[in-house]
Structure formats: structure tokens, C-alpha cells
Write a structure and sequence with these properties.
Layout lengths: L1 H13 L8 H27 L1 H4 L3 H6 L6 H31 L8 H24 L5 H17 L21 E3 L1 H26 L4 H23 L7 E4 L5 E2 L5 E4 L7 H15 L8 E5 L13 E3 L7 H15 L15 H23 L9 H11 L3 H16 L14
Parallel strand pairs: 4-5, 5-6
Antiparallel strand pairs: 1-2, 3-4
Length: 423
């Protein structure tokens, strides 16, 4: 139990979003924990199953008046309960931590249940493999194989079988409603598959009660098939169901900065940083009266004119990331040149050098706007331009940005733009 708690607890707490008490993230972190604890449970299940053969106690089961499956069933039940108790302890710790930080919303109980179902399926698979091949090497082998299989599937998030895995490591954010139909299908798949395997194995042990076991296994197979078809279906094969309407928490003073309620602890620092950015961009196409938070992965869906920024956690440097996302969003959708060097034709090296110069010059301006260090500037012309830009006053830099914004936004700045004085 201590090792189970250590592995699952480490993975779960390590994946909690820094500074954010988000229930979706809390439950997602518990699922990620199954990636480590699941193989351990499978290995323990296999080790328990091989104990009878290792101790040469098979004859006791044959001589007993009980059903031949009674003893193994008790062992399997103990392994499953051991795994579920460990899962419950880690779950309680994660949920209490989230609740103590004023978590927004509520935990998705069906998603929690699928995590428990996936862990229980690990236990069943490990135990039955140990029963079928009672060898000393089976326990470590099944632990390693289940881990390798789970990690391989996690690398195929768009595959139809992705959510049939016993582990789901997809992150979830507070901006969306989770897909309950998917979780119901997963739970039916996990529980149905575990029950089908156990009942069919028990029916193969003896003729006593075989008819009832086969009938029950038929029902379990039907549940398994229903769950699998639901998970594999195109309508339910997504972790997120729809975007959740957000009642933003906003600053009362101008410029208005709005964040998701779960990010409210970071609002004062974000408001102060965007107020400084407002002073730098006033009178330029970058100026704003109101900015709203969006998740990083959706930022590209908004036009560059939208006044939005992204921050997915409140860990170290989140203010800088928010400012950078706002400024960068004004550039990314305006010109392909901001993404990659243009084709150079016969003079590809020169074209690439010019593009790199423009990118570094853009970084000089972005660093001023976001209050960050420029970093190493390997091109002498860029270094000279940065030195010249640093001699300007804040008012002169703002005037320069207004005059050169179009070239800045399309990543076409040239060292010639960094000469002379602004009006």
C-alpha cells in the first residue's frame, strides 16, 4: 500500500496546475496517476495469483468442498479492494487540497469512477495472467508490459482506440464541460471487460455452476460491447463536450482585465502588468480597454484583433506568459513570415538571414512590451538596433511602435527602422 500511495500520489500532485484550484484538473491528475499505479497493481495481482503454485497448494483447492473458484475469487477481491482503497486515499487527499484552495466548480464524479474502474481492470488482468501462467517472472513482466502499452497508447491521442485504454492522461481545463457520455462508456467498458474475463475464467475451472457463469458472462460481454462501441463512436470520442459559459472576474478600473474565476488569485498581478502594458501601447494598434483570458489551445481561433490573452496556470512567470501571449497573438495570424522563413529561391541563405534578423528585431520590441530580457542577439545589426531602441524614452518608443506597427505585426522589421529619432 505505501508504494501504491507513493506512486499514485506523486503523479497526481505533480500534475496539479500550480496556483489553480480547478476540479477538472484535480480529477485529470488522478487519472494520470493510474499510469504509474496501474502497472504496480497489475504486477501485485499477478504475484498474488502465482502464490498457490509457488507454495504447491493446488491440492487444497481440489479437496475443498467449496466451489473451485471461491479461493481465487477471494484473492482477486482482496487485490481489487487494495487498489481501490489506495485510489480512494489519494483521491481524498487531492480533493481536500483543491477544496482548501477554494476550488471552482465541483469534481466530476463519473470521471472519478472511471479512474477507479481502470485501476480495477489492471488488477483483474494481472491476476488472471498470473493464474494462467504461474511463473515467477510473470509479475514484473505484466507490470512492465502494461506500462509500455499505456504509454504507447497515450502517444496516439487521435486514434479510435485511445479512450479504450485503462489510462487517460488528457489534460482538462476549467473553460469546458466534460463529456459524461464518454465516461459512462469507459466505465461500462472497464467493468464489463473485467467481469467478462473473471466469469469466463471461473466457468473454465469446473462444470459446477457453469451454466449460470456463462449466462452472467454473456451479460457482461454485452455491457462490454456497449461501452466499447460508445467510446469508439465519433460522437463521444472527445474528453470535452462543449465550452462552459464563463462568468469572468474583472477589475473595476480601466483597463479591464478579466479572468476565469479559478484564476482569480492572480488577477491583481495581471491587472498591474496589463496596466503597464496599456501605458506602452496607448495610441498604437495594440491599445486595449478590456482583455479577457482564454485557454492557450484555443487562442489561435480568435482573430488577431481580439483582445485576449492566455495563461493556464499561476506558476512562476505566469504574468510574463500572459503579456507575451497577448502581444504574440497580434502577430501570429497576420503573416506567414512570423511562423517560418519564406522560400529563398536561388538565394536561400540570404533570405533565411534576413528573416532571422526580422524575428530578432521583433523580439527586441516584444521584450520591451512584456518587460523581459531580450536574450542573446547573435546578429550585430540586431544588437546595434537594440542598443538604439534602448536609448529612447517610453514616449518615443510608443511613437515608434505606432509608426512601425504594420512592419512589426508582419515580422518585416529591418535595421533601417531603428535609426534616427522619433518625433
Amino acid at each position: 500500500m505505501p508504494l501504491l500511495l507513493l506512486l499514485h500520489g506523486f503523479a497526481a500532485f505533480d500534475n496539479l496546475t500550480p496556483g489553480v484550484a480547478d476540479w477538472n484538473n484535480a480529477v485529470a491528475s488522478l487519472h494520470i496517476g493510474v499510469l504509474l499505479s496501474g502497472p504496480l497493481v497489475a504486477g501485485i495481482g499477478a504475484f498474488t495469483a502465482t502464490r498457490e503454485r509457488r507454495r504447491k497448494l493446488e491440492y487444497l483447492r481440489v479437496l475443498s468442498a467449496r466451489h473451485p473458484a471461491a479461493g481465487p475469487a477471494a484473492e482477486l477481491t482482496a487485490v481489487v479492494l487494495w487498489a481501490l482503497v489506495g485510489y480512494a486515499i489519494v483521491t481524498a487527499a487531492v480533493l481536500v487540497t483543491t477544496a482548501s484552495n477554494s476550488g471552482w466548480g465541483s469534481p466530476h464524479l463519473l470521471w472519478l469512477a472511471t479512474g477507479a474502474g481502470g485501476l480495477a481492470l489492471h488488477a483483474v488482468l494481472g491476476y488472471l495472467v498470473g493464474r494462467l501462467w504461474p511463473r515467477v517472472w510473470v509479475a514484473p513482466a505484466i507490470a512492465v508490459l502494461t506500462y509500455l502499452l499505456a504509454t504507447a497508447i497515450q502517444g496516439q491521442p487521435n486514434a479510435g482506440y485511445y479512450f479504450l485504454s485503462t489510462v487517460t492522461t488528457r489534460p482538462a481545463d476549467a473553460f469546458h464541460t466534460l463529456n459524461s457520455a464518454l465516461f459512462a462508456g469507459q466505465l461500462a467498458w472497464y467493468v464489463g471487460l473485467a467481469a467478462s474475463l473473471v466469469l469466463l475464467w471461473a466457468a473454465g475451472l469446473t462444470a459446477r455452476g457453469r451454466g449460470h457463469l456463462l449466462a452472467a458472462s454473456g451479460l457482461a460481454v454485452a455491457v462490454t460491447a456497449t461501452g466499447a462501441s460508445s467510446v469508439y463512436g465519433s460522437e463521444t470520442r472527445a474528453l470535452i463536450d462543449k465550452r462552459t459559459p464563463v462568468e469572468y472576474r474583472c477589475t473595476p478600473a480601466q483597463p479591464t482585465v478579466c479572468v476565469h474565476p479559478v484564476f482569480r488569485p492572480g488577477l491583481p498581478e495581471l491587472a498591474a502588468a496589463f496596466a503597464r502594458l496599456d501605458r506602452r501601447t496607448r495610441g498604437t494598434p495594440l491599445e486595449f480597454d478590456r482583455v479577457e483570458q482564454r485557454p492557450y489551445r484555443l487562442l489561435s481561433r480568435f482573430p488577431s484583433e481580439a483582445r485576449v490573452f492566455a495563461v493556464d496556470d499561476l506558476g512562476a512567470g505566469y504574468v510574463t506568459r500572459a503579456l507575451t501571449s497577448y502581444v504574440s497573438h497580434q502577430l501570429d495570424s497576420r503573416s506567414p513570415r512570423c511562423q517560418s522563413p519564406p522560400p529563398g529561391g536561388d538565394n536561400e541563405q540570404a533570405a533565411k538571414r534576413d528573416w532571422l534578423t526580422s524575428v530578432q528585431l521583433n523580439q527586441v520590441v516584444v521584450s520591451w512590451l512584456t518587460e523581459t530580457r531580450t536574450g542573446a542577439l547573435g546578429i550585430p545589426a540586431v544588437a546595434r538596433s537594440a542598443d538604439w531602441f534602448g536609448t529612447l524614452s517610453e514616449s518615443e518608443k510608443r511613437t515608434w511602435l505606432a509608426e512601425h506597427f504594420q512592419r512589426f505585426a508582419t515580422c518585416q522589421l529591418d535595421p533601417a527602422d531603428f535609426r534616427g529619432r522619433t518625433a
